[in-house]
Structures are given as C-alpha cells and as structure tokens.
Amino acid sequence: MRALHVAHLDWVLFGAVFFITSFGMLGIFSLEYTTDQFGGPFLLRQSIAWGLGIIVCFFCTRFQSSLFECVSAWLYLLGIALLLAVLFFGETIRGTQGWFQFAGVSFQPVEFAKVAFIVHCAHFLSKNRDHFRTWWPLLGSAAIATAPILLTLLQPDAGSALVMCMIWFIMVML
Question: Cα separations (Å) of 120 from 25, 65, 69, 89, 115?
Fold first, then answer.
C-alpha cells in the first residue's frame, strides 16, 4: 500500500485555505457564543462541513491537473444542469430559489457551479494562452462565464453572480 506523499502538497495553498476557513469558523463560534444559540446545530453542521471540506481539499491536491483538464467540460455541464434544475425544482430560502434539500441537508448548486466554472475556464485559458494577442481567449472565456452567471441571476442570487464575474475577471487578468 502506497503512503500519501504529503511532501508534494502545496502547503502554502493548503495553509491559506485552512487559515481562512478556520477564521470563518471562529466567527461562527463567536456569533453563537454571544447569542442564546451557543453549541447549537448551526455550529455543529458548519464544523462537519468544514472538516469534510478540508479532507476534500487535501484529497483533490493528490490528483494530477490533467485529470481536471479531462473532466472540466463535464463538471461545467453538470454545474449548468444543476443551475437549470434548481430553477424548476429548487426550494426558496431567504428569497432565492437556489437550494436543494435532501433529508434535512441544504445544498446550493451555485457553489458547485462556481468550482466547475473555475476548472473549465482555467482549462480553456491555459489551452489558449498563446493566443492572448487576439480577442479569442477573452470572448471564449466570457462565453463560458455567461451561462452560469445568467442562470444564477434568474434565481435571483446577485451576490453569487457578482462573485463569478469577479472570478472571471481575475482569471483573465492573471
């Protein structure tokens, strides 16, 4: 059995993710500490999600980037399909019809769509990096960004749509 090679892990990236998410958990803890909800179910759910997220982050760093290149289009299409499905079958929470609920667990497909969009747009931009003297990479990446942004605005979730716009802009600038 082969041991995990933690020496090849991008410790700066992993540390940054761990620090930022830990800071968020500290914020949730302090919020619940100052209210009557201390030790409530929200902190427990967020702690479980945080732990699973750290495990997934560690697990994903084990894959070669070529795997993400191979599945980027499929991830993107799945993200678009989920954004379409939530418009018809989603639950409305806090004014946004952008949630699926299964067995008491809420899932917001736009969060998956953001990751899928990043992976697919990064693949497109890296594949076309030698053509940045033309408008093709800019227009192609804008076309990739348009579908999830418009579907997110239909929920309506302007905050997530704005985040995707900023992600696209930063990726193009980099």
Answer: 29, 12, 8, 25, 9
Which of 86, 80, 143, 85 has the alpha carbon at shortest distance from 113?
A: 80
pLDDT tens string 3-25: 555 556 677 877 887 888 888 88
- Is the per-residue pLDDT at 130 higher than 70? yes
Give the Cα separation of 119 and 152 in Å (integer): 18
Beta-bridge mates of residue 105: 102
| Nearest-angstrom CA–CA distance, 82 and 155 | 12
Q: Are strands 105-107 and 91-93 parallel, antiparallel or unpaired?
A: unpaired
How is 16-81 classified by DSSP, letter by letter? HHHHHHHHHHHHHHHHHHTSTTTT-HHHHHHHHHHHHHHHHHHHHTTS-HHHHHHHHHHHHHHHHH
**Pair 152, 166: CB distance under 8 Å:** no
Burial of 153 by CB count in 10 Å (0-12 exposed, 13-18 middle, 19+ buried)? middle
Of 140, 145, 174, the residue nearest 162 (C-alpha): 145
In the chain, the amino acid numbered 18 is F
Helix 136-153 to helix 158-173 angle (10° resolution) is 170
